[in-house]
Amino acid sequence: MSESPVETVSPGEPAPVVGILGAGRAGTAFARTLLRAGIAVDIASTRPPRALQHHLKIYAPGAQPVEGEDIAVRARDTSGIVILAVPQEELDEVDPDWVAGTVLVDATNTWQDELLPGWLQAAVDEQLPTSMALAGRFSSARVVKALNHIAHADFDDGARPDADLSGRRALAVAGDDEAARGLVMGLLVRMGYDPVSVGPLAAGRIMEPDGPLFNRPLRREDILRFAR
């Protein structure tokens, strides 16, 4: 795994910043873990920043509320990473220009009761991994699938940054761009997890709700059984 901006910060340098789109249970769980790891967080939702401030004081104290269009402004200069944690039914509300030039972590899942955007429903109907449809929609970003197969309720307690990798919960990572995949893996290490590459974006199918990795406490060897 290559060194990345989220892994090494020299004295005097500002903390890396990760953007999060979505301030629900998953988005705020990611934010809390990032903040504990010394990584600053910008977070946006459908609510304007002023309306989001009180919510974040309760569920992700220290996270900075921003407009959606500003979600990647600071991230581009540091970590390069934005986490997509909005319901898939709301993806049309995310302007692809907001995340242009970033590594976009697709932490979303498809649920049966959601009314999906047409472009995403078409991929589901063709039984394609949804991340591949997102990569087409957000073509100006490098999409990596991660963080979707662990329940938000387990995320805080699952992070063990002080443990050796062998003692950490493993999380799968899929992506076509090797450098982007490495950046996300570096971020997961710093957050307290053991990242395991399962291969290209299409391999992310095994991380979806009907896949063998979904919502299971996993070690590295459990994931490697399914890696391409």
Produce a short descriptive summary.
Keywords: Oxidoreductase. The chain has 228 residues and is of the alpha/beta class. The chain is built from 7 helices and 8 strands.
SSE layout and pairing:
Blueprint: E1 17-21, H1 25-36, E2 40-44, H2 49-59, E3 64-65, E4 81-84, E5 103-106, H3 118-125, H4 130-137, E6 142-145, H5 152-158, E7 170-175, H6 178-191, E8 194-199, H7 220-224
Parallel strand pairs: 1-2, 1-4, 2-3, 4-5, 5-6, 7-8
Antiparallel strand pairs: 6-7
CATH architecture annotation name = 3-Layer(aba) Sandwich
CATH class: Alpha Beta
Largest sheet: 8 strands, mixed
Query: What's the tally of helices?
Result: 7
CATH topology grouping: Rossmann fold
Query: What is the number of domains?
Result: 1
Q: Which of globular, elongated, flat, extended, rod-shaped describes the shape? A: globular
Strand order, largest beta sheet: 3-2-1-4-5-6-7-8
Regions with pLDDT < 50 over 5+ consecutive residues? 1-10
Fraction in helix: 25-40%
Helix/strand-derived category reads: alpha/beta
What's the β-strand tally? 8
Radius of gyration: 16 Å
Written as H for each helix and E for each strand, in order along the chain, the element string is: EHEHEEEHHEHEHEH
N→C terminal distance? 17 Å
- CATH superfamily membership: NAD(P)-binding Rossmann-like Domain
